[in-house]
Amino acid sequence: MASSLGNPEKAALIALMLVGEEVSTPDLKKRHGIDLRKETREKLNKENLITSYTDARPHTHKITDAGVTRCEEVLVSMELPPRAPVLLSVIFDVLRPFVKYFQQHNIRLTDVLRTTDAEVTTTLESLIRSAYDDLKGKPQDWVRLARLRPRLNGAGKDEVDKVLLAMTRTGLVHLAPDSDRKSLTDADRTAAIRIGKEDKHLVAIEES
User: Fold this and answer.
1) N or C, which terminus of the chain has less Cβ within 10 Å?
2) Taking the C-alpha atoms of 80, 83, 87 and 89 in order, what is their torsion angle to the nearest 10 degrees?
3) Alpha-helical segments (H) within the chain
4) Are strands 60-63 and 193-195 parallel, antiparallel or unpaired?
5) Which residues, at least 6 apart from 60, have a Cβ–Cβ distance to it below 8 Å?
6) Selection from 38, 42, 37 nearest residue 3 by Cα
7) What span, in angstroms and rounded, lies between the C-alpha atoms of 107 and 88?
8) Residue ranges of the chain whose pLDDT lies below 70
9) Under the phi-then-psi rule, with left for phi > 0, alpha for psi from -120 to 50, and beta for the rest, what region is 20?
10) How does pLDDT run across 162-197, given as a tens digit for each residue?
């Protein structure tokens, strides 16, 4: 059974996960304020949570797959000290559900941390197309944004709007208002994308 980690080990492990690559002891301290001392390093090495290269100086270190898994467990279960700042407590309350969601869907936190803007856009566009295909009644059918957005894995409205606007520039994706204003629900109004002075409530995607 894995032994418990103290705060120095937890801090070092989280910092090495954030770096995600081999890093020297001085660089780790410079980037994240972590002074990886010998006793901390040796405990993490013993449990195969990090790999350290000590044949030359400065020593370098890299988190292992087991270390990433342990780090995710720490972020979900770690209890803050009683006198921890309220802001830190609230931040952890926000963070834990995200880490749990990634665990449930077999998404490594390291992959999320190192996802580029281009990869996010490509992934979100694929989600939009997949959700549209599920919702449309026939090819190029109009689908309400209020029905589409909940299927995008919690992506933020601004982020989705940005990708939708980029998709319209291909000429194959179209956004339109609902002409029957009286039929609009609160969900329709909230989900609408504003272009110029007009709200668009519907999307249609042509086959490429």
Assistant:
1) N
2) 20
3) 7-19, 25-32, 38-46, 65-77, 86-104, 109-113, 117-135, 145-148, 157-168, 186-191
4) unpaired
5) 22, 23, 24, 25, 52, 53
6) 42
7) 25
8) 1-3, 115-117, 120
9) left
10) 999 999 998 999 999 999 989 999 999 999 999 988
